[in-house]
């Protein structure tokens, strides 16, 4: 039945709606879901009766917890080779969203992580609520932040993006706004009214959509990152992950020490590759160029043991005790890190000209 489909499409007035419909799996993205979203966006782009698109998640827990990493775990275990094809389509979708010619309204209510950031934070009208929990937690499973995450985080003020990319820290509405991952704060109890307004007759052009978002918006509750800027900017300018950890431990700030302890639980290989990726993204002009590099990094991660082990520890066995290989940062070689920038065997994504 239609309501059982993993992505629901609908129209209300001149607004088209996408609903990620796997609430029991926190609306985690599968390859067929990515294709469905892309096909719907392509059709609505050429439909003069559609003024805007709204994406949201079914259930009350969040928009999307990311890609379905259980599928990726099975792929790494069996060597089936399906993950690169999924990433190719997912990353192309992220670029389509970023370049979409009509307002793309993302309701980032509840959990928004990994691939969930990819289908929301590249949109033109990004709305967070008091329930928003936004993160790019890839280093916890042996990956480098992807779906354009290194592009987005590299544009955050100071070293905030480096901090978030390495630690995978979850942030709320105010910090998402500060880091440029969202545009408006709307209390969750006003989302229904916002949806109704977007379906109303006053929505005739893109400017109307943005005005409605501003009308229902208000000031977000205070965040954490702004107060931590001094030690974050000081510690994360270091030249290596090892030095970052040393600075965090020596800063005298309890929150910095906590960050250091978090980093020591992450994949050493992923940490080093992520630091390179974020700093390269900061120097790279376009999202397309950065996502091309992220595709290389994701494909490379398939050749390292940490990806399978990280997913096992986080979502399969849930013991939260990954056995990284290598175990120490000092054991990760320059050659290991360089592999994350090398073209994959199946060829590059080729988004950038």
UniProtKB/TrEMBL annotation:
Reactions listed under catalytic activity: 3-hydroxy-2-methylpropanoyl-CoA + H2O = 3-hydroxy-2-methylpropanoate + CoA + H(+)
E.C. code: 3.1.2.4
Record Gene3D superfamilies: 2-enoyl-CoA Hydratase, Chain A, domain 1
GO biological process: L-valine catabolic process
Keywords attached to this entry: Hydrolase
CDD domains, per database record: crotonase-like
The keyword Hydrolase is assigned to this record: yes
UniProt xrefs under InterPro entries: ClpP/crotonase-like_dom_sf, ECH_dom, HIBYL-CoA-H
Domain Enoyl-CoA hydratase/isomerase intervals: 16-340
GO cellular component labels: cytosol
EC class of the enzyme, as a word: hydrolase
Molecular function via GO: 3-hydroxyisobutyryl-CoA hydrolase activity
UniProt keyword annotation of Transmembrane helix present: no
Entry protein name: 3-hydroxyisobutyryl-CoA hydrolase
């Amino acid at each position: 039945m239609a309501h059982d489909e993993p992505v629901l499409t609908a129209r209300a007035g001149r607004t088209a709606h996408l609903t990620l419909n796997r609430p029991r799996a926190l609306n985690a993205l599968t390859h067929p879901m990515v294709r469905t979203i892309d096909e719907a966006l392509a059709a609505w782009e050429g439909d003069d009766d559609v003024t805007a698109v709204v994406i949201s998640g079914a259930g009350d827990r969040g928009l999307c917890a990311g890609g379905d990493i259980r599928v990726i775990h099975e792929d790494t275990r069996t060597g089936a080779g399906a993950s690169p094809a999924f990433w190719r389509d997912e990353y192309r979708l992220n670029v389509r969203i970023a370049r979409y010619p009509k307002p793309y309204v993302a309701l980032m209510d509840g959990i928004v992580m990994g691939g969930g950031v990819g289908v929301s934070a590249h949109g033109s009208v990004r709305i967070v609520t008091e329930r928003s929990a936004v993160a790019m937690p890839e280093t916890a499973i042996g990956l480098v932040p992807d779906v354009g995450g290194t592009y987005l985080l590299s544009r955050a003020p100071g070293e905030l993006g480096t901090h978030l990319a390495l630690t995978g820290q979850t942030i709320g509405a105010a910090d998402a706004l500060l880091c440029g991952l969202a545009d408006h704060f709307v209390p969750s109890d006003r989302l229904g009214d916002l949806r109704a307004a977007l379906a109303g007759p006053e929505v005739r052009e893109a400017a109307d959509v943005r005005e409605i978002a501003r009308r229902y918006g208000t000031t977000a509750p205070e965040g954490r990152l702004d107060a931590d800027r001094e030690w974050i900017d000081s510690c994360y300018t270091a030249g290596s992950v090892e030095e970052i950890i040393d600075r965090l431990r020596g800063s005298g700030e309890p929150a910095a020490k906590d960050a250091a302890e978090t980093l020591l639980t992450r994949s050493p290989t992923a940490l080093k590759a992520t630091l390179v990726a974020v700093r390269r993204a900061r120097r790279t002009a376009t999202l397309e160029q950065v996502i091309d590099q992220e595709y290389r990094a994701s494909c490379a991660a398939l050749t390292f043991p940490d990806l399978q082990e990280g997913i096992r520890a986080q979502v399969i066995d849930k013991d939260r005790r990954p056995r990284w290989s290598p175990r120490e940062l000092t054991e990760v070689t320059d050659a290991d890190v360089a592999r994350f920038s090398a073209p994959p065997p199946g060829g590059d994504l080729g988004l950038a000209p």
